[in-house]
Amino acid sequence: MVQRNEINYKPFLICICLTLPLFAFSHTINYALEKAPVNDVVWFYFKMGVAHIVPLGYDHILFVISLCLLNTKFKTILWQATAFTVAHTITLALSMKGIITLPADIVEPLIALSIMFVAIENILINELKVWRVAVVFMFGLVHGMGFASALNEIGLPRNQFFTSIFSFNAGVEIGQIIIITLAFLFFIIPFGKKSWYKKAIVYPLSATIALIAAYWTILRII
Amino acid sequence: MKKKTVYILLIVFFFSVSAFVVIRYSIRQSKLRNATYPLIERKSIAANTVEWQQTKTIAQQLIDKLQYNTKDTKAAIALASLYIQEGRITGNYMYYDAAAMKYINGILDNEPGNFEALTLKALLYMSQHHFAEGLAVAEKAQTINPYNALVYGLLVDGNVEMGNYKLAVENSDKMDSIRPDIRSYARISYLREIHGDYPGAIEAMKLAVEAGGAGDEPTEWTRIQLARLYENTGDIKRAEMHYTIALNERPGYAYATAGLGHIAIANNNYPKAISFYEKAAALINDYALQEQLSQLYRMNGDAKKADSLLQNTIEEMNKDSKKGEQDERIGHYADRELAYAYLLKSDTKNALKHALIEYDRRPENIDVNETVAWVYYKMKAYNKALPFVKAALKTNCKNPVLLCHAGLIYANTNQKELAKSTLQEALRNNPNIDPELKTESGNVLKTL
User: Fold this and answer.
1) CB atoms within 10 A of CB B348
2) Interface predicted TM-score (ipTM) of this complex, two decimals
3) A12 vs chain B: nearest CA distance in angstroms?
4) Any residues with CB less than 8 A from the CB of B43 and at least 6 apart, and which?
5) Which residues have C-beta within 8 Å of that of residue B259, sequence separation ≥ 6?
6) Taking CB atoms and an 8 Å limit, are B25 and A121 in contact across chains?
7) Which partner from A7, A61, B137, B440 sits 20 to 30 angstroms from B182, CA to CA?
8) From CA B133, how far away is CA B156, in angstroms rounded?
9) Residues in chain B closer than 8 A to A35 (CB atoms)
10) Helices (H), B285-394
11) Is B52 exposed, middle or buried (0-12, 13-18, 19+ CB in 10 A)?
């Protein structure tokens, strides 16, 4: 009989069960690159990382733009970008090692949902709060698993596992920096100080991103 | 409405949708775990055989047994084997391989060292073109029982696909020494073929045919391989004879029907070839047959029908690969097949993408190297094609299609002498290969 004060482990067990079936599956092996020189491996995964954001990663692009829309302070964007980077680096490495992985059926809708969340949040808040950094960190964990599934399509050379992960991640960072730079060039620097910046730029852009993300969420759930 | 309220609603919405996604996934997984896989009715003549009625009865008995006792390993192995065989007969690999994998994984969860389950798992991986994984599982099985011929057969297949040809030959010798039978002879034949020994390959395949019972699927499949060897060496009459025998011994056998279609291509009778291929494609779900049929429609002047079938085939292949990943996590790697399908569509960008994905998995395999080389050739990137075609020829394979590909690449990289001798060798016996490739090769040869 279950006692009243007994801890309910069920939610934790569900989480563990969702990740466990994949424990046995580590990354796909890229046999071709096992024979390649380090420079080629670094360049290959670096390019792949950049391409995964610009131009192919529409969802990641919208997420990073959303991070830039909270306010115009460089520090705000830097904090969020750092939280996002640290988080997705953790899950990318853990996923590729097969230590923790979530199925694409869960990760993909959650990525879309995360974009919608930060976009709507941009309309509701103005200042960076610890909560927002924590949320971005959490979403970064999910996005990292998305990066891992893309990387798994190509696979990794076993003898250069960390080199390839590091190069891919560096590419992703450069991709993010490109988006942030473009955000500064196109709307933060020219219009950031205008009185109508929020109403004319942040709200419509955030609403559009939220709508697109909502559409993606539905599409990925169906 | 206050911002705070909206914010709370947003959080509630976010967690609700997340929970919905997770719960829905859990329900789907649980359904998959509890799913049973009834046999799907066979098509055409294959549906009227006594063997089909017996297969259905046995399958139902095994399913009932497993529902009564989920841990009945013997029944699970028997049912998984039955599914694998049914997949081979009907070509519905996606359904039957997933079904077999469910039971195999169930056994291995309880007994990770179960030899039979490991060999079947290796077989399933190979069937889904997950060759590296299949080879790894076969190697594990071999450590448990190093005296089983079947496991050496799997090691031959895995090593061939991964391009470890020396190891493949060693394992084939071992297999033959343990148990010389239809399976070992067929593998010897293939190894001889890829090492350029067509007479030896034909001799071994004849032994394979003789070692099997006439009319059995494995025997008739072997007979089809023998006919294919004759086609490659230009002996069309003998090839036709073997396709006809296979069709007589196993009425409605799709590969025999398709084989006769291939003979009709050699005779430039495209309407007849189309009729055979349409029959074969209706009997079995095989993308290679559909690709060939699409090509035939095009050669016969029906481009619209060709495009529609090709597009459909590409979509199905992509769908299978995704569906499999969700179901029992095996997923069919069809990148090499997709590369050729995209080439037929003249979509070289996607062809290259898929060819290179497969190359990353199996950089030592000669067929994969040939695919990459041919895609580069079609992109007119002849210098890029060269190292790949050289790698494809490393076993001294004399397959006429490979030699035509190599000859054309040599011709476009200013290696006229090599191109001439390679194309001459390819076309020497007038093999029955793709007429367009044959014409192109013949025309280039005339200019050398």
Assistant:
1) 19
2) 0.81
3) 13
4) B90, B282, B283
5) B224, B227, B228, B239, B242, B243, B246
6) no
7) B137
8) 14
9) 363
10) 287-299, 303-326, 335-344, 348-361, 366-378, 382-392
11) middle
The Cα B257–Cα B237 span in angstroms is 16
Nearest CB neighbour to A14, from listed B18, B26, B361: B26
Is-contact B224 B242, C-beta < 8 A? yes
Tell me the DSSP string of B141-186: HHHH-TT-HHHHHHHHHHHHHHT-HHHHHHHHHHHHHH--SHHHHH
> SS3 of A156, please?
strand
Amino acid at B366: I
Identify the pLDDT of residue A27.
Answer: 65
Residue type, B329: R
Distances (CA, A) of B76 to B65, B97, B116: 9, 14, 11
Collapsing DSSP to helix, strand or coil, B422 comes out as helix
DSSP B70: T
How many other CB atoms sit within 10 Å of the CB of residue B135? Answer: 23
User: Which of B422-445 are b and which e, b meaning 16 or more Cβ less than 10 Å from the residue's Cβ?
Assistant: bbeebbeeebbbbeebbeebeebb
CA distances from residue B69 to B30, B72, B101 in whole angstroms, order as listed? 18, 6, 18
Give pLDDT, residue B327.
53
Higher pLDDT, A185 or A161: A185
User: Residue A93: what are its φ and ψ, rounded to 5°?
Assistant: -65, -45
pLDDT at B299: 92
Structure tokens at A68: 């830039």
B149 closest CA partner among B113, B187, B117, B121: B187
Total Cβ atoms within 10 A of residue B50: 7
pLDDT in tens, B190-205: 999 999 999 999 999 9
Inter-residue contact B338 to B368 (CB < 8 Å):
no
Widest Cα–Cα separation across chain B: 85
Six token digits for residue B287: 């993308």
Is residue A111 very low, low, confident or very high in pLDDT (cuts 50, 70, 90)?
Answer: very high
- Tell me which range, A87-101, A181-195, B86-100, B308-322, is most confidently predicted by mean pLDDT: A181-195
**What local confidence, expressed as pLDDT, does residue A1 receive?**
36
- Reference B229, options B57, B423, B16, B399; nearest CA is B399
Q: Which of B360, B316, B367 is nearest to B338 (CA)?
A: B316
DSSP result, B238-286: HHHHHHHHHHHHSTT-HHHHHHHHHHHHHTT-HHHHHHHHHHHHHHS--
What count of CB pairs under 8 Å joins A to B?
66
Distances (CA, A) of B167 to A55, A139, B29, B152, B242: 43, 47, 39, 11, 32
Is B204 within 8 Å of B192 (Cβ atoms)? yes
C-alpha distances (whole Å) from B61 to each of B34, B57, B319 are: 17, 6, 32
The neighbouring-strand residues paired with A29 are: A156
| CA–CA dist B228, B6 (Å, integer) | 70
pLDDT given at position A23: 33
For chain A, list residues whose CB is within 8 angstroms of any CB belonging to chain B. 14, 17-18, 21-22, 25, 28-33, 35, 103-106, 109-110, 113, 117, 120-121, 124-125, 153-155, 217, 221
